């Protein structure tokens, strides 16, 4: 664990108490009056450090505890136990001071004023965060250009498309140059172009300003494009903390060569020594092999020597497949990964 | 681009003040986006004022004065009509629906981003409510001017009564905002708040004296109304304006209103501390 860490999380846990629900006649009244509760553990003993300038993907299946963790890190929610320090501050005890150094974007919520032009919300941000006029003007001009906001700055938020709204929310969270940016599903429901604009903006912030970014997402392209480190959480616990390449190597130590023979009938019988046929589809065959045991060049050479080929490509295991494997394994992943 | 710098100090009070004003202005402007709804609501207010004036004129049935209870003495018809006009308009402005409400923000899960701001959320929603009331004021004043043209308003009893009314009006505004925020806080415990809001509206309308002045209530009911803060939001200020409450009675009414503002302020702060420990942001 590092001394440099801007975010320090130790043994963080959050339990929710929910009243027991009753069915049948007067069920609603009994639910209201009952003293019986069930306890649900959303986050369990999570620990990690994040250093300044890191861009960390925090991911897991629905209900894994991602958003709950982010809410505790931002000071919105008080944990059941454990500690969090953001640049030395405990977020839920020192909400206001902590708020000055963090930006927060929740993909499904907006901090913008729904009925008013976007620029009005930006002006409130300027006052709330005590942004000097020169810094505000410079950042507004830069973000307007980077995020293509010129056409909708004067438009009421409720008239914006989802992509426009997300861009405006992202700008609002960065106008005061926070050191840490939390993004909860920032690309949810966006089209390819809007996603790309947001990814490019985040990459720029992270590289040029060294803004520390924590990103929760279900969009694995976001992570492949942006994250230098992944923290994987499942059932409230960290099951992996490391870089993307190591995750893939550990969970999917193979590559595929996808071959399309000139004669489609050959696809079904195509075999190469040292590889397994993973899939045959649409006249193509996926040959799977371990690159540590079988060099890529050897596999490609063997294919080209024995078959006439109209197309050939080498495919890395995709993150989605890797994650599917981990989630399906449940707690079988074991503590050795964390 | 520059590198980011950690800023862990508090925001200056000047910036807090400016941000508070901006929140109030944005809440007021958001309400004005729905100005046609506001205009219709103000029209209904005017109809309500005229209807109540007709009812009270009929109740007086040619008598020039009627004895009020609680030692206020005789109440003349012009004073009663002025009470009806002022109290109805004042209640309307202080209790009007707004676009910015804590209850709605809890329900929609928007308090997540509110809580992540460097300004106390209780203060943010207070200013939002204040902005809503300010946004309603021009419409309430327009309704009053029209009512005045038809003789529904009388001049304040004296210059002193006007000053005391303005002080009482400020306290009435503070208490109204505090009551709405306390009510909104119930949404942290339960999302089924419609029944609670309906009960609150009925009770506050009646006990504030906006339907019937406390001087026309039976003694026991007037005593009950005196135990709640609602009378300080409508009855006391208007009775002071009309000179029905004067001298020691006026000072007592102002003192009670100030005491309620302090008690509700402490209650809000204490409840708020508990609320923050049980925040569950709706919708994940």
Rg for CA atoms of chain A: 24 Å
For the secondary structure, the number of strands of chain A is: 13
Task: Please give the count of helices of chain B.
Answer: 11
The greatest interface here is: A-B, 51 and 44 residues
General form of chain A? globular
Set out the fold topology.
The complex is a heterodimer of chains A (338) and B (284).
Chain A: E1 7-19, H1 27-33, E2 37-50, E3 55-59, H2 66-73, E4 81-86, H3 95-100, E5 102-106, H4 118-128, H5 133-146, H6 162-174, E6 180-184, H7 192-208, E7 212-216, H8 220-226, E8 229-234, E9 237-242, H9 244-251, E10 255-261, E11 276-281, E12 284-289, H10 296-306, E13 309-315, H11 319-329
Parallel strand pairs in A: 3-7, 3-8, 5-6, 6-7
Antiparallel strand pairs in A: 1-2, 1-4, 8-9, 10-12, 10-13, 11-12
Helix pairs in contact in A: 4-6, 6-7, 9-11
Chain B: H1 13-33, H2 35-60, E1 65-67, E2 74-76, H3 77-94, H4 102-107, H5 111-115, H6 121-149, H7 159-185, H8 194-207, H9 219-226, H10 235-241, H11 248-276
Antiparallel strand pairs in B: 1-2
Helix pairs in contact in B: 1-6, 2-3, 2-6, 3-6, 6-7, 7-10, 7-11
């Amino acid at each position: 664990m590092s001394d440099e860490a801007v975010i320090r999380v130790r043994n963080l846990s959050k339990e929710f108490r929910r009243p027991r629900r009753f069915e049948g006649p007067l069920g609603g009244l009994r639910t209201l009056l009952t003293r019986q509760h069930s306890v649900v553990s959303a986050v369990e003993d999570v620990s990690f450090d994040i250093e300044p300038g890191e861009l960390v993907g925090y991911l897991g299946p629905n209900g894994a505890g991602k958003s709950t963790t982010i809410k505790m890190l931002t000071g919105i929610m008080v944990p059941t136990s454990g500690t969090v320090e953001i640049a030395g501050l405990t977020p839920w005890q020192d909400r206001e001071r902590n708020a000055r150094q963090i930006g927060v974007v929740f993909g499904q919520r907006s901090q913008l004023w729904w009925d008013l032009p976007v620029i009005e919300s930006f002006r409130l941000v300027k006052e709330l965060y005590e942004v000097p006029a020169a810094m505000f003007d410079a950042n507004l001009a830069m973000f307007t250009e980077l995020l293509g906001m010129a056409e909708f700055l004067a438009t009421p938020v409720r008239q914006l498309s989802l992509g426009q709204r997300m861009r405006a929310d992202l700008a609002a969270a960065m106008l005061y140059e926070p050191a840490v940016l939390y993004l909860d599903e920032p690309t949810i429901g966006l089209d390819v172009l809007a996603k790309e604009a947001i990814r490019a903006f985040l990459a720029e912030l992270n590289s040029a300003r060294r803004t520390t970014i924590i990103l929760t997402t279900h969009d694995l392209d976001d992570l492949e494009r942006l994250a230098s480190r992944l923290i994987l959480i499942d059932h409230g616990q960290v099951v992996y903390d490391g870089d993307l390449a190591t995750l893939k190597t550990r969970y999917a130590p193979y590559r595929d060569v996808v071959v399309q023979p000139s004669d489609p009938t050959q696809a079904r019988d195509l075999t190469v020594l040292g590889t397994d046929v993973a899939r045959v589809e649409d006249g193509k065959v996926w040959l799977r092999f371990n690159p540590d045991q079988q060099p890529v060049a050897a596999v490609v050479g063997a294919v080209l020597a024995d078959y006439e080929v109209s197309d050939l490509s080498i495919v890395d295991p995709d993150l989605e497949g890797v994650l599917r494997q981990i989630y399906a394994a449940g707690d079988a992943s074991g503590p050795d990964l964390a | 681009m520059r590198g980011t710098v950690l800023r862990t100090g508090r925001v200056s009070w000047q910036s807090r003040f400016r941000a508070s004003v901006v929140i109030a202005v944005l809440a007021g402007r958001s309400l004005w986006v729905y100005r046609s709804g506001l205009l219709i609501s103000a029209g209904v207010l005017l109809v309500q004022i005229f209807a109540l004036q007709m009812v009270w004129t009929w109740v007086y049935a040619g008598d020039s004065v009627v004895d009020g209870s609680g030692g206020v003495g005789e109440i003349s018809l012009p004073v009663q009509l002025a009470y009806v006009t002022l109290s109805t308009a004042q209640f309307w402005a202080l209790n009007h629906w707004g676009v910015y409400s804590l209850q709605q923000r809890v329900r929609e899960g928007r308090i997540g981003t509110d809580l992540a701001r460097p300004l106390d959320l209780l203060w943010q929603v207070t200013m939002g409510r204040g902005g809503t009331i300010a946004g309603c004021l021009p419409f309430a004043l327009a309704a009053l001017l029209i009512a005045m043209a038809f003789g529904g308003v009388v001049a304040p009893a004296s210059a002193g009564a006007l000053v005391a009314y303005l002080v009482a009006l400020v306290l009435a505004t503070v208490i109204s905002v505090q009551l709405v925020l306390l009510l909104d806080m119930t949404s942290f415990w339960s999302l089924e708040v419609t029944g609670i809001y309906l009960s609150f509206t009925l009770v506050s309308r009646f006990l504030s004296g906006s339907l019937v002045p406390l001087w026309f209530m039976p003694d026991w009911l007037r005593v009950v109304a005196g135990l709640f803060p609602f009378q300080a939001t409508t009855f006391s200020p208007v009775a002071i304006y009309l000179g029905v409450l004067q001298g020691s009675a006026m000072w007592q009414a102002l003192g009670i209103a100030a005491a309620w503002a302090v008690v509700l302020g402490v209650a809000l702060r204490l409840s708020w501390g508990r609320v923050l420990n049980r925040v569950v942001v709706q919708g994940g």
